[in-house]
Amino acid sequence: MAKITYREALNQALSEEIQRDKNVILMGEEVAQFKGSYKVSEGMLENFGSDRIIDTPISEAAFSGLAVGAAMMGMRPVVEFMFWSFCYVAFDQIFNNAASVRYMSGGLINVPIVFRGPANGGTNVGATHSHTPENFAANTPGLKVICPATPADAKGMLKSAIRDNDPVCVMENTILYNMQDEVPEDEDFLIPLGKANILKSGNDMTIIAHGKSVHTSLDVAQTLEEKHGVSVEVLDLRSIRPLDVNAIIKSVKKTNRVLLVEENKPFCGVDAQISFIIQEQAFDYLDAPIKRISAIDSPQAYSKALENVQIPAHDRILAKAMELI
Amino acid sequence: MEGLHHDTILEPEQKNLKKDNDISESSDIASINMIDGSVKDFSQTEVNKNLSGEYKVNLYEQMIRIRRFEERSLRSYQQGHIGGFLHLYIGQEAVAVGSVSVLKENDHIITAYRDHGHALAVGMDFDECMAELYGKKTGCSKGKGGSMHFFAPDKNFWGGHGIVGGQTPLGLGIAYALKYNNKKGACLCFMGDGATNQGPFYESLNLASLWNLPVIYIIENNGYSMGTAESRHSAGDPLARRGDAFDIDWSVSNGHDIYEVRQTISDALARAHENSRPSVLEIITYRYRGHSVADPDQTYRSKEEIEEYKSNKDPLNLFREKLLKEKNITEEQVKEIDLKAKGDADASAEFADASPYPDPAELMDDVYWETDNPKEKKSYGTMFFETPS
To answer: Which of A271, A276, B147, B158 has its CA at 20 to 30 Å from residue B81's CA atom?
Structure first.
């Protein structure tokens, strides 16, 4: 199996699906001639032409809404946001139109669309470019939300998202784009939405994470194991909505201790919901209160010195984990 | 008449009217050009001159049916059968009926929240529409959309959208899909004058022109953005001129003359079909009721203003007079059509009243394609986090 980057995995997923289905197009700012702001679509304009790989003006409300309208007509557009932060100027198109048209039409109209792009802090670009909207996207019935954390997941889940008949928000991470790992070359390599992945098995504690915090959690698990003799299970949610509740509960029942880690802000964040589900469905199995680490609750800071503190890092997670033991 | 630029323009003494030679003597609804003040009889233009009497009567009947449906729904609202908002189309009937009447097989429609007129014009029936207003299971959206969200994709009708201007990029996308699939069609995207001040409208105009998309923006200018008169909500006049900045053909026309509406839309359709070019069409019209029926309609316009429009510009009266004069319709037929429309409207209210409400379990239907099609479900996991017990 070839080792490729997360970026190349996305490119493969997009290319294969565009090849496979003439209704699939990729649209967004700088996706064609510029090859993508993060070079995700490198080579695609040359391979598929300007009918399939479409440069848009900086005009998120128009091209997001256009894509929703085209999806209502049966196309399967993939909309790239240069940053998910920019979806805020297209909010109505995503959160009203894409999410609600099926419901409001009594099921007469489908919206098979993918909105994708990076949704992360940690790159010193300040508050406006560092939003992590997976919590409020998942708060909107009608939308599906996934946060692939590995190259293989990036490919397999994006392909599933494109083939999905509902709107799917794919939240990537610029810091993961260069991450390399083995990715199957099979054109029908699909990872279903809503299936969590246990990346490391353990017995004493479960760390539940999504996105880049999965990798920080794996590092912490290693430290806990090597330095403190604690056996840690790391569960990568992969998908926020649908959510693999069974996998969460199963792991909690096994380890009896839970630490939730996310780069999302805390208030009404993804882990607030997960925490509730655990106490509701596995309260009697808990040997300690659920612990939680999220981004520090201020607008995202620019300075490296501040942002490094803001985003859950190894030592902060480790300290919280130690409280559980 | 603050804000009603169309009414002031239509005051004959204020205009330097150019008398066109081609006005037929029988013309009752010769229209005054909104830009240069010339007068024209649109019944004799290309798209209208060969219409059969029967066809014209059908157009009239459609308009009457919209008005009677709206009047009946108002009564039902006042009786407490209908909740939420009810935005009535009364006064604007010629715009929807005239526009839809010139559409071809691959032409599509999308509109805003004042959508009953367009829905009925594309052929949705009274029962499913009234039942939707009543929130019943038999409604066109099974009671999940309500007044502002009627849909009939089988009739090329894509809603019914509640957020002002929010449908303008969707219309663009419908046009995009038509062009992508090499269909010779266009999307008529209706909006109100108030929507012209929403950002997505301009973003859409830019893309429509830049990408040569067959979308036709129809500003149904009824003079008011909710309770705010045009002179208080919009700089620059006319509104359609804003298309100029994007090199989009634009025009301003009268909405009380169904013939003029038909010709205007037909010209724009030709631009869309033949050259894949967008248009911005401002059609001057008027609504007799408040923004919604919850609007007491007493704070921002006078009764006299409404009465004057009803007396001089009512699209139904004008068309009926014309048809009577042409002997295309008789007084008896007029009464018959009206009685039938009222009867059908009453029957639709009875149908809606007798229909069941949706079952609480139906709250969870129609959210996702996937949860509605469990046999083809590919995903795992929990999709819903609170459901009816």
So the answer is: B158
Q: Which of residues 108-137 of B touch A (CB under 8 A)?
A: 110
Phi, psi at residue A82, to the nearest 5°?
-55, -40
Residues A92 and A170 in one domain: yes
Question: What is the domain extent for residue A132?
Answer: 3-182
Q: Do B159 and A104 make contact, defined as CB atoms within 8 angstroms?
A: yes
Query: What distance in Å separates the CA atoms of residue B140 and residue B353, rounded to the nearest whole number?
Result: 15
List CB contacts (< 8 A) between A103 and chain B.
144, 366-367
Q: Does B145 touch chain A (CB under 8 A)?
A: yes
Region A171-192 average pLDDT: 97
Tell me, yes or no, whether A188 lies in a domain: no
Q: Is residue A192 included in any domain, yes or no?
A: no
Co-location of A154 and A201 in the same domain: no
Question: Which spans in chain A are helix H?
Answer: 6-20, 44-48, 60-72, 91, 99-104, 134-138, 151-163, 213-228, 245-255, 270-282, 304-310, 314-324
> Do A12 and A129 fall within a single domain?
yes
Residue A121 covered by a domain: yes
Q: Which pLDDT tens digit goes with each residue over B11-65? A: 333 334 344 444 444 445 567 887 788 888 999 999 999 999 999 999 999 999 9
Query: Do A244 and A302 fall into the same domain?
Result: yes
* Residues β-bridged to residue A206: A233, A258
The total of other beta-carbon atoms located within 10 Å of residue A89's CB is 16
Question: Looking at residue B102, what DSSP letter applies?
Answer: T
Match 């986090």 to its residue by tokens: B385
Mean pLDDT of all residues belonging to chain B: 92
Angle, vertex CA B260, rays to CA B254 and CA B265, nearest 5: 100
Looking at the structure, tell me whether residues A59 and A161 fall in a common domain: yes
Q: For the segment A45-104, what is each residue's pLDDT rounded down to a tens digit?
A: 999 999 999 999 999 999 999 999 999 999 999 999 999 999 999 999 999 999 999 999
DSSP 3-state assignment of B157?
Answer: strand
Structure tokens at A67: 């894509």
Cα-based torsion angle of the residue sequence B3, B5, B6, B7 in order, rounded to the nearest 10 degrees = 70
Task: Indicate if A98 and A225 belong to the same structural domain.
Answer: no
